[in-house]
Design brief:
two-stranded antiparallel sheet, 8 strands, 6-stranded parallel beta sheet, alpha/beta, 15% strand
Length: 229
Amino acid sequence: MRLPRVRRPRLPRTRAGRRRLVQAVMAGCVLALLPSTWMYVVTGDRLRTTADVPRTEVAVVFGAGLWDGEPSPYLAHRLDAAAKLYRENRIEVVLVTGDNSREDYDEPDAMRAYLTRHGVPDTRIVSDYAGFDTWDSCVRARKIFGVHKAVLISQGFHIRRAVALCQAAGVTSYGIGVDAKHDATWYYGGTRELLAAGKAALDVVVRPDPRFLGPKEPGVSDALASAHR
């Protein structure tokens, strides 16, 4: 059985045609990079380290997966940074936001347990069980938990998007990009961010409601009140 021939795309034969093709390719590349460029501009002066981040009442830690019910190494590094800030009296409350969309997968509770084992009192930890993506987490931090200013903690490849989205959601933010081993997960995350940047820009323009919004919760204000007693 003969397979049908696959026709190769023909390049334009004229100089003008080739020039238009090059211009189209260049325009496509520019459009693809615009969201990433926007994120770098918006977050240029908002990135810090655990050593120089301004003292802020609330830190937000984004979920990054579980391994056998425990935080993945990437998530553990984020939580270690939050625990360090708490021990140094740089923050007072940690809002852990992650996925609890099914009964056998609970990022926020695993994050809470990890933090308490590393010296953060349970009363200073607030759980957001509907942080299904970065935009949802940022909007819920503002609208549900009443967070107006926060330190955001994630890996370097994700932190700019987190800061840009939280700023757009009304949360004045500084971002800490924690160190991470440059393994396959790191390279995948960095590549994924090129696509995620486009979605982030769309979220800022369209401003969709989170998958689950629900009523306001006093967890953060209660935790801050207990911290000030």
